[in-house]
Amino acid sequence: MKQKTTITIIFILIPLILLSQIYAYIYPPHVNPETVPEETGPPVSILLTYALSNLTTQNWTEALKQINNTEHLYVPQNYKYIVTRTIELLRQLTETLKQTNETLEVIELLIEYGQLEEAKTKLKETDILLGKANYTLREVEDAIDQLIQTFNLPSNPLKEKINETKNLLNQYKQTYLKLKQTLEEIITKIEQGTLIQPNLTISANTTKTPVGSTIKICGNLTATNKTLQNKTITIYINKKPYKTTKTSENGSFEINLKLPTIYAPAITIYATYKPEETEPYVPVTSNTIKIELIYQTPTITILEIPEKISPLKNYTLIGEIKLNDTPLENWPLTITINQNTTTIYTDSQGHFNYTITITTKPSTSTITIIMRTQPQKSIGPATTKITIPIEYIDPQITVKTPKIIIAGIKFEIQGTAKTEDGPIRNATIIIKIGSKIVTTNTNENGTFTVKIAPSLLTLSRKLAITIVLAPKEFWINTKTIEKQATIINPLTIITPLIPILIPIASALKQKRKEKHPPVEVREELIETTRHVAVKKEVVKVKHPIVALYWKTIEKIHNKTGVYPQPNQTLREYLTQIKEKIKNIAEKFEKLTILTEKALYAEKTTKQDEKLAKELYKNIIEELKQ
Amino acid sequence: MKRVKIITLALIFSIIFSLTIAYMIPSTDNYSPENPFWNGLKTLENIVNPVQITSITQLKQIINPKQTAILILGPEKPFTTQETQTIKKILEKGAIVLVADDFGQANTLLEQLEIPCKFTQKMLIDPVFYYKNPRLPKIFHIEKTPWTKNIEELTLNYATTLNITSSEIKILANSSEYSYLDINMNNQWDPEEPKGRQPILAQANIGEGTLLLLSDPSIFINSMINKSDNAQLLKNIIEGKTTYLDLSHYITTLHTQLKTIINITLNYIYTPEIKYTLIATTTIITLYTTRKTKEKEEPEKIEEIEEVLKKHPNWDRRILEKLREWREKFGANRTTQTT
Q1: Contact B70/B241 with Cβ under 8 angstroms?
Q2: Alpha-carbon distance A158 to A156, whole Å?
């Protein structure tokens, strides 16, 4: 039962653990583009099919766009030429077909307006275009066949589109032939006399006239020396129908034409006559007359202009409007600044005054002022555009920072922010020291003071104090300054000294101990090989018990005159003098045992040393008695 | 004792050697700025030289947000509320934050920021405009904005799209009209799958800042950054700004974790306090050990004489010392020969 549960848990857990890996496998964040397998054929067929579709529906713009988009196609280097060439041919075909279509439309209009000669010329042009289109289409077809073979593309959709293009071209050919036939029929009919080509001429009473003035247009509509009466004539100004009139009994017409207020150097005027279907006439367009428009353009002269503009400040723009050196009095002038338009008027001297004030943050670093005079009658408009840079002021900031900062101790940063115009009030000051950020504001005098206590955890180092001044006024630039300071952390300076100080202290302690050892006894070894004992300072015995023993020996020697012989052991010496020192023999024996222990045993205890001292004292005292 | 010493020393040296090797071998993690291979961000690192942040809280240290660009590329861990708040605050103060993601966790950030846009996390396929493979679509429907200055084309790599639900979000780039989302991953378009132009780059304004959303972080990896105008997009974003690269939302491999630890440790060691403490400690330990060894040798010599003197207290120490000196000088063998 337990085993089953364990296996079930494992089976549940493993997929859960592997879930992220499985997800990453299905949705990898990326693949190596250099090792990713290339698609067998470039996706050119889809794009060509779409481009040809647009071409056959005469959506020229879209077709050309699709063709241009082929630049983004990925084509392996080996096949690049085939694809590029096909696309180039397709572009040529599209442009030729577009031009053919446009020419055919023009021919239709020319025939409609009886401009038969122009129509004939255009038909010739179309013939050439159709020939070119036919040739290019064959080239495109061959190129596409090549693509189909090279990339093993599905041929049906492309072939279908090529056939549709062929149909379109045939359609154009048909239209061309139809128009050619219509034109030929008209010409034949004119030659046969079944259709009469009227003659429409117009003239104007002037070739030069002020803008908006009225001119007189006179004209004649005749057909084989016969006047055509009561026929509708349409007058066109700048190719747009403007007015209609009717011919009089003698086929003439006269019309007063109030010209539109166009301030251009010239306008073109012509007239057309479109006969009814039942009438034996061919439509006709008159000669075109050109009327020069007379108007005067005033001059706007800027007399005073600021070199730079600071926001919120008032600047005066002074100028004058003159017409041939004559000031234009009370003349309207529209001033556009940042899409806001105001109209002002000139004074009696033709001068104008305008106060520029920028209150909102402009999107660019300059302001553009467009001044346009309003046209009035024969005085046309005049426009002047001036660009003035906005003055972004660089503030001055002075900051006093300490050169040395002690961690854990408060220090002060003082500073002043100002411009040439005065202090910068209420500006945000951001101070960054290490990881600490402090924010404050400047006061009315543009000064600020910040007290900062660096954390005791700050490490001793040179650090940069960054001070950012961010004024509220958008025309005053933000300024960042950096100051260097050395922060000293007493703790972190002591820390590296600790491993140095510890052994030094212990070494000093040991030295001191050596200078003042707890018991320092100089042992005197007595040479007794001769009768006269010779004292010889030999060894420095460090053991206190042994030292006490030798001191005792010295005293016993004084009393008994017996020194231990070099060949004698301590016990032998004890036995030798035991009788002579009866009263202290027991104590001396104990001291001898302790000395033996000190000399031959591994260790003596403090207790032993204490006992030895007591024994030594007692022995000395008793010897004195 | 000596054997223990040798084993300890061998162990220490092998650990140091292994750590050095681990430190020297470059990372192979996705989006790692230390990774020089195809899937890393070494090239980005070279172009941008960003400040690498291992915690979003480091962004609180930024004092000039208007001059700051933050890159969050393919986050693998979700964003916490605190992290979102930090990012929001810095955005409001004027920073530029690029959040580029495909199948990661950036939606957690967008949700918390209440941005009416999401990464669809479905694969974008373009069967017509691609580099080598339809899963590497090319983007050329690009609006003219300061962010897309001098960009004609971008090449993506296993990208997704953006699902924008408000006109407040400005679309900056779209995929081609032939693209579609391959929801069921069968490499072909199915009737239920969205097709046509899909937004891949968008802009949202938050306070004074700009949040840029890009539906593929891979365009900045080493193997992709130089394709089309991918690098130009990066340059436009970071132009004249201090750039921060978020590394806190990646799931790193053990190797990278170890490298990070080594790096942190080295950084600490390089601080003057630690550096000089270590030098002092090492010097003291060396001196102490040398002295101990010397001291140990000395008592051995003294002990020998002391032992003789214990047995024969009346013998001359100086003679004994002299004898020992001669023995050491002429050697035991010679003495034996003489006798």
Answers
A1: no
A2: 6
- What residues of B are in contact with residue A33 (Cβ under 8 Å)? 38, 131-132, 136, 155, 157, 223-224, 227
Residue type, A393: I
Task: Compare all CA atoms of chain A with the CA of B219 and give the residue at the minimum distance.
Answer: A30
Q: Give per-residue pLDDT as tens, B106-123.
A: 999 999 999 999 999 999
Which SS3 state, helix, strand or coil, does residue A410 take? coil
Q: Which residues does B191 contact at the CB level (< 8 Å), separation at least 6? A: none
Smallest CA-to-CA distance from B217 within B55, B91, B76 is with B76
Whether residues A38 and B136 touch (CB distance < 8 A) is answered with no
What does the alpha-carbon distance between residue A151 and residue A42 come to, in Å, rounded to a whole number? 7
Write the Ramachandran bin of A542: left for phi over 0, alpha for psi from -120 to 50, otherwise beta.
alpha
Beta bridge partners, A208, equal A292
Closest CA to A255 of A240, A238, A267, A237: A237
Contacts of B310 in chain A (CB under 8 A): 599-600
Number of Cβ atoms within 10 Å of the Cβ of B294: 9
Of B227, B287, B316, the CB nearest to A33: B227
Beta strands in A259-295 (DSSP E): 266-273, 284-285, 289-294
> Taking residues A66-86, what's their average pLDDT?
85
What tokens appear for A364 in the block? Answer: 């660019």
For residue A480, the chain B residues in CB contact (below 8 A) are: 64
How many Cβ pairs within 8 Å bridge chains A and B?
131
What would the mean pLDDT of A525-529 be, rounded to a whole number?
A: 43
Q: How confident is the model at residue A520 (pLDDT cuts 50, 70, 90)?
A: very low
The one-letter amino acid code at A408 reads: G
Q: Which of B241, B314, B317, B320 to mutate to test the interface with A (most CBs of A within 10 A)?
A: B314
Number of H-type helices and E-type strands within chain B = 9, 15
ipTM: 0.76
Name the strand (E) or helix (H) holding B96.
strand B96-100
Which segment of A195-199, B152-156, B159-163, B312-316 scores lowest on mean pLDDT? B312-316
- CB-based contacts of A132, cutoff 8 Å, min separation 6: A96
| SS3 call for A440 | strand
Which band of pLDDT confidence, cut at 50, 70 and 90, is reported for residue A385? Answer: very high
- 3-state class (DSSP) for residue A595: helix
Name which of B90, B128, B145 to mutate to probe chain A: the one with the most chain A Cβ atoms within 10 A of its Cβ: B128
Cross-strand pairs, A284: A273
Q: Indicate yes or no: CB of A500 within 8 angstroms of CB of B38.
A: no
> Which residue type occupies B180?
Y
Could you tell me whether strands A411-419 and A422-423 are parallel, antiparallel, or unpaired per DSSP bridges? antiparallel
Instruction: Please judge whether A478 and B64 are an interchain contact, meaning their C-beta atoms are less than 8 angstroms apart.
Output: yes
Rounded to an integer, the average pLDDT of B93-100 is: 95
Beta strands in A93-169 (DSSP E): none
> Across-strand partners of A217?
A204, A255
Is residue B333's pLDDT more than 90? no
At residue B295, does pLDDT exceed 80?
no
Residues of B88-101 as b/e, b for ≥16 C-beta within 10 angstroms?
Answer: bbbbebbbbbbbbb
